[in-house]
Amino acid sequence: MISDNGSSIISAFFRVFSKEIKLADAHHFLDIADKSKSKKQCENEYKSAKYDLLDWGHHIGYETQNLYKLAYFVLKEVFETQQFHKEVKTTTHTYKDWAKNPIDYPLASRDKGIHQVDCTTDLSALEPKDIAKMVMNVTDNSTNSFMQQIRRNLSILERPLMTASGDGKSYIYANFNPKYAQYVLTILRTCYNFCLSYKTPNGKKLTPAQRIGITDKQFNLEDIIYLR
Q1: DSSP 92-112
Q2: Residue 29 has what pLDDT?
Q3: Helices (H), the chain
Q4: Sign of the CA dihedral running 58, 61, 66, 68
Q5: What local confidence, expressed as pLDDT, does residue 45 receive?
Q6: 100, 136, 164, 203: most buried by Cβ count inside 10 Å?
């Protein structure tokens, strides 16, 4: 699972998937971004990170200029020496503890610049190349995309706006109704996860449900309505 560092969702994840976490079948990654950055600052960080990545690849000797591949190579090298967990020794036993040691994600983005990734679960049983593959998928793009779908399609969530003169609120576009908004959000969430496909880094078009292995097919609205 990928989230920000909100304690409520982290606690819920560890409570629901406690067995899977102990067996190392489930992991939780943090996508940490500084939301106080200006748009210009994010754009500058994106350009700088892109240049640094290409320059690193050139000096190491990689022929590819594919930023995604170069970022993977960077991460694989990082995890040869760095871990998200530390080993704690007591008089009776040894255990792994979260080190709170995030790394800079090598692929900066235009909307949030350079951001960091951390992992709250134990990855010590995995090889650096496997950890690098997992970290490459740590992004909040899917969450942002879903929020955009909500903003663009659900007028029922539109709140009143300040008038141009600033003397009050205009309710002309405000259809806010929490009861029906909940129904519509459930429908949209199901449609987004199972019906709408998006291009993945490897070029395939998959739904979010296909990407995480819940299903192997893309559904349409009729499949959902008639439980096919």
Answers
A1: S-EEEEE----EE-SS-BTTT
A2: 92
A3: 7-16, 18-22, 39-60, 67-78, 128-136, 141-153, 178-194, 208-211, 221-225
A4: negative
A5: 92
A6: 136
pLDDT of residue 171: 62
**94 bridge partner residues:** 89
pLDDT of residue 128: 92
Taking the C-alpha atoms of residue 41 and residue 113, their distance in angstroms, rounded to an integer, is: 7
Q: Render pLDDT for 20-54 as a digit per residue (tens, 0 to 9).
A: 888 888 899 998 888 888 889 999 999 999 999 99
Provide the CB-side half-sphere exposure for 74 (13 A, CA): 23
Q: Report long-range pairs for 68-76 (Cβ below 8 Å, ≥24 apart).
A: 68/107, 68/136, 68/201, 70/106, 71/105, 71/106, 71/107, 71/136, 72/132, 72/133, 72/136, 74/106, 75/103, 75/106, 75/131, 75/132, 75/135, 75/136, 76/128, 76/129, 76/132
In terms of Cα–Cα distance, which of 145, 144, 141, 99 is closest to 123? 99
Helix (H, G, I), strand (E, B) or coil at 186: helix
**Which residue from 174, 171, 129 is spatially nearest to 155, judged by alpha carbons?**
174
pLDDT of residue 188: 82
pTM of the model: 0.67
Structure tokens at 9: 């969702």
β-bridge partners, 32:
116
Instruction: Name the stretches of the chain with pLDDT < 50.
Output: none
Q: Report yes or no: 71 and 54 within 8 Å, Cβ to Cβ.
A: no
pLDDT at position 118: 92
